[in-house]
Amino acid sequence: MININSIASASAAANQLNQNNRNLQRSLAKLSSGLRINSAYDDAGGLAVSIKLSASIRKTEAASANVGNAVSFLQTQDGVLSSASGYLERMSEMAILCMDETITADDRAGYITELTSLKASFVSLLSEEFNGTALFDAAGATLDVITNENGDVATIAQPDLEAISTALSTLVFTDETTAATANTGFTTQITALGRLIAANGAEQRRMTYAQDILGVNQTNLEAANSRIMDVDVARESTEYSRLSIVRESGIAMLAQANTSAQSILRLVQ
Fold it and tell me: What's the CATH number where 164 sits?
C-alpha cells in the first residue's frame, strides 16, 4: 500500500538518526574528557567502584603524608641526638686530657669551664621541638602515626634524653683522679646515647618501609581506577568514526525517505 498521510520510513530514519546523534555525542564526550565514564549512565556499577577507589587513593595519600611527617620528625630528632653525641665525645675527651699529670691547674680550669658550657648546651637540647611537638620526653610519651588508609596506628617512643642530662650533671673533675671517674661516667652515658640513636634509626627504617608500602598501594589503586574510568582512545576513536559514518548515512536516508511523497504525487499527475 502507498500512503501519503504517514511516511513510516522517514519516522524510523529520524528516530535512528537521533539515537546515532546521542551515541556520537557520548563518544565525543569520552574522547574530549579522556574518561570512559562521564556520568552514571555510561556505567553505573563502574562509577560506584571508582568512587570507592578514589576515596581509598585520597586516604592513602593522607596516610603517606602522615608517615612522611613522622620520618621528618625522626630525622630532626636524629640530628639533635648527633649533636648530643658530639657534646659527650668532647666531654670524655676533656676527661682524658685532664688525667694528664703534665698539665697545670690553669690548664684544667679551662677544661672545667668548657665542660660547664657543654653541659648547659646539652640541657638546651631537651627543649627542642618539631612543629610544636617535643622531640624528647622523660615521661615515656609516644607519637602515634597513621600508617594506612584503614587508620592503623604505629607508635613511636620518645627517647629519654633527660636521664642522660641528669647523669651528666653529677660528672665533674678537678684533678687526675676525678677526671678518671668522670671519664667512666661519660663512657656509660655515651653507650646510653648510642642506644637512643640506634632506636631512632630503627624507627626511621620502619617508617620508611611504611611509606614505601603506601606508595605501592597508591600506584596499584590508581592503576585499578584508571582501568575503570579512563577511555581507550584508540578503541573510542574507531567507534566515533563508525558513528560519524552511520550518522551521515542516516541523514542521507532521511532525505531519501522525505522525497518518497514527491514520487507518489508524480503518479497522479
Answer: 1.20.1330.10
